[in-house]
Amino acid sequence: MKAAILHPNRRNLSIENIEIPPPKPKEIQIQVKSCGVCGSDVHLVLHGHLKPNQFPCVPGHEVSGIIEKLGEEVTKFKVGDRVVLGAGTSCGRCIHCQSGRENLCSQTGVRGFDSWGGYAEFANADEKDVVRLPETIPFDIGGILADAVSTPYHAVKFRGNLQVGENALVIGSGGLGIHAVAICKSLGALEILVADIDEGSLENAKKFGATECLLLGKGENLGKKIQKMGKTVDIVLDFSGHMETVTSIFRITNRGGRIVLVGIGRSPLEIPIPFYLIERQISILGSYGSDRRALPDLISLVENGDLNLKNSITDILPLEKANEALVHLDEKIGHPIRFVLSP
Ligand SMILES: [Zn+2]
Ligand SMILES: [Zn+2]
């Protein structure tokens, strides 16, 4: 099959023909129809900040397609089914996996890092990580549900526990943050404030439901900026991983507020805890990936028209343009939201 491959010590992908193994007994093999290009793929390929668990590496964890082959023990699917592959992989046996919280599994992995992903004509996946995609949802939208939408959904719904009528602040409106905005809107947030250092990304955020866009200058204090506007928030979703920005927003977080950290920055977060955080009972929560609840929920929200992702796909590109997509995403050329590859 044709695949975009990362070799050791290389800062780009090469398009090559490789042999994909047949599906294992509990695996399915799909013909890939769409694979989203994520910011973490930029860190994997262009910068080398993230490392794959094996070489050669086929990236891609936002994968949708049509089932082509079944392992002999697969029971839930048939050849020809339209499906999305979950972005995370897990052992399937531990207490967390058994209770449906796969992203707490100690052997959790990411498709395209720990196994071959969707920058290829075909991909294999364990049937436990596969969800059926209805005809009404196109493959490009289906693919990005696996990470760009499900990761913020987990953060907003299951970690932040957003309630109808609450005010939200989203820090960072890239591929994940922008979908946090859309999810806050679909789950009934009243005000949705969005902060970013990039004006074009904020323009995008307006299309997804931001009620207030805050352009941050270098070193500017976000908390003070929001305080001056006379606003406070109940839930904060941080996709920046930027320590000064995160600590600045304590002052505008309401009693009972939740600060959900999703973004991982270059340097570790060292958070001073002011006493009023205790008094106001503010929670600081980590959120990583998503579990098996996210994809079925999101598929229903999209099907029912409660979550509008029509602006999510910036462009659909052939596999040969994978490197170009990564560079455009990295340099924010044209302020892309999601490029998807159609192998
Ligand atoms: Zn991703
Ligand atoms: Zn497990």
Give the structure's gist in a few sentences.
The chain is of the alpha/beta class and about 350 residues long.
Query: Could you give the count of β-strands?
Result: 17
In helices, the fraction of residues equals 25-40%
From the N-terminal CA to the C-terminal CA, the straight-line distance is 10 Å
**In CATH, what is the homologous superfamily of the largest domain?**
Medium-chain alcohol dehydrogenases, catalytic domain
Task: Report the portion of residues in β strands.
Answer: 15-25%
Total DSSP helices: 10
Q: Which sequence of SSEs, written as H and E, runs from N to C?
A: EEEHEEEHEEEHEHEHEHEHEHEHEHE
User: What count of domains describes the coordinates?
Assistant: 2
| CATH class placement of the largest domain | Alpha Beta
Bound chemical compounds:
zinc ion
Radius of gyration, rounded? 20 Å
Mean pLDDT: 96
CATH topology of the largest domain: Quinone Oxidoreductase, Chain A, domain 1
Approximate shape: globular
Structural class: alpha/beta
Give a quick account of the main beta sheet: strands, pairing sense, barrel closure: 7 strands, mixed
Q: Poorly predicted ranges (pLDDT <50, ≥5 residues)?
A: none
At CATH level 2, the architecture of the largest domain is Alpha-Beta Complex
